Amino acid sequence: MSARFGPLPDESLDALVAILDEIRLGRSRSRSELVARTGLGRAIVAQRVGELIERGLVTEGDVGPSTGGRPPRQLAFRSEAGHLLVADLGATSIDVAVTTLDGRILGHHDEPARIETGPERCLDRVDALFDLLVRTTEDLPGRLWGIGIDVPGPVEFESGRPISPPIMPGWDGYPIRSRFAGRYQAPVWVDNDVNVLALGEWRAGVAMGHDNVVVVKIGTGIGAGIISDGRLHRGAQGSAGDVGHIQVVDDPAVVCRCGNIGCLEALAGGGALGQAGMAAARDGRSARLRTALDRHGTVTAEDVARAASLGDPVAVAMLQSAGRRIGAMLASVVNFFNPSLIVIGGGVANSPDLLLVAIRETIYRRSLPLATRDLLIQRSSLGSLAGVIGASAMVVDQLFARDVIGRWIEAGEPSGLTDLELARAG
Ligand SMILES: [Zn+2]
C-alpha cells in the first residue's frame, strides 16, 4: 500500500479515532459537540476534523440548528467511502449482502444451504453470491473495504478459524479469513452467529442505547452474545456466551452433540424440540405433530411451534418446558452479569409467545429483585436480516478500532490490507 497522507503520531491517532467514533456513531454532529463530549481542545478538534474531511471519512453537510450566533455545519460520517461484503452462514441457509460503511443494505440474497456439506462447497457458493451482488448492485460506493463472515459454531476470533464446531463437520480449523483475504485483497473478520446477532441488535436493533445486554439465540442450538460496558465481550479465546452447553440436569440419557450429558441445548434447543416432537408424533400423543410427520417425514422445532400456536397441548407443554429451562439458565446469568436488557432471537424464538412468556416468568421468579428491577426482556427486532446487519457492524467496528485504523489511515483506505498485515498488528 502506498501512503497518500502523512504519518500520524500516536496521540493524533487517538484523537482522530475518538472524534471519528463520535461522528460515525451519531453522538456528535458539530465541532462544539465534539469539544464538549471528547474533552479535547477546540484547536485539536478542528485539526482532526479537517484531516478526516481531507481523508474522505467525514463530510460537512447541511447547516444544523443554530444555538445562537453562526449556525454550525453538520458533520457526518461518509458511509459511502467504500462498501462491505458480508455472509451469514446458518445451519441450513446462506445470507449475503453488500452494505455501506454504516450497515445500510444495498443488495441482499438468501438461499437454503447445508453447512454440513463442508467449507469448500459453502464458501465457493458465498464467492459466487458475492460476485452476483457486486455485478447486480447499482452505484456500488467506493472500493471493497472489508468482509465479514459468521458461522453457527465457535470461532477463534484472532485467527478467524472455527474450533471444533459441533454442527459443522469439516470446518474445524478451516482458515476462513485467509481464504477470503487472498481472493478479495481486503481485511476479513469471522465470528460466531450469536456475537454477530448481538452486534446487529446493539447497533441497529432493540439493544441500541443499552451498555449491558445479553442476546440469546435459540435456533438449532442455544448461544448468547454479551455486550458488556458498551463492548462486545468475546472472552479470552472467543467462546464467551456458550450457554447452550451449561449442564442443567444430571441425566445420562440426555446426550448433547458436544459429547457431554445434561446440556441445556440438548433439552431446550430447536434440535431437541424437533426430536421431542417426533417422539410425540410417533407414539400418538399429538395428532397435529403426527400430521407434520406424515407430511414431510420428520418433525422440526417449527412444526412444534406451529402446533403450539394452534393449541396442541403436547406442543404447548414442550415449549413451556423449554422456556422454563432457558429462563432458569438466564436467571443465573442475570444474577451474575446484571444486564439491563435480554434479547431473545433465533428461529425457534421467532414464532410463539409461549416460549418468551415462560422464559420471562422464570427469569423474574428466580433472579434477585435488584437485578430484575429495571430488567427488560424483549424479542429480537431485526428478523431475518439480523445476521448480515450484525456482520457489517462487526467489520466496521474492527476497521475503525484504534489498532486497525492505524495501519490503513495513511493509505487512505483499508482495501488491500490482508490477514497477514492484520496478524502482525495483533
Ligand atoms: Zn453440550
Structure description:
- The structure is a single chain.
- The chain has helices at residues 10-24, 31-38, 42-54, 119-136, 176-184, 193-204, 264-268, 270-282, 287-296, 301-309, 313-337, 347-350, 353-366, 369-372, 386-399, 402-408, 419-425, and strands at residues 58-63, 73-77, 82-89, 93-99, 105-112, 143-151, 155-156, 161-162, 188-192, 213-218, 222-228, 231-232, 341-345, 376-379.
- By secondary structure, it is α/β, with parallel strands linked by helices.
- The strands form four sheets. Strands 5-4-3-6-9 form a five-stranded mixed beta sheet, sandwiched between helices. Strands 12-11-10-13-14 form a five-stranded mixed beta sheet.
- Strand 11 and strand 12 (231-232) form a beta hairpin.
- Helix 8 (270-282) packs antiparallel against helix 11 (313-337).
- The longest helix is centred in the last third of the chain and has 25 residues, at 313-337.
- The model has no long low-confidence stretch (mean pLDDT 91).
- The protein binds zinc ion (ZN).
- Zinc ion is lined by residues 245, 256, 258, 260, 263, 265.
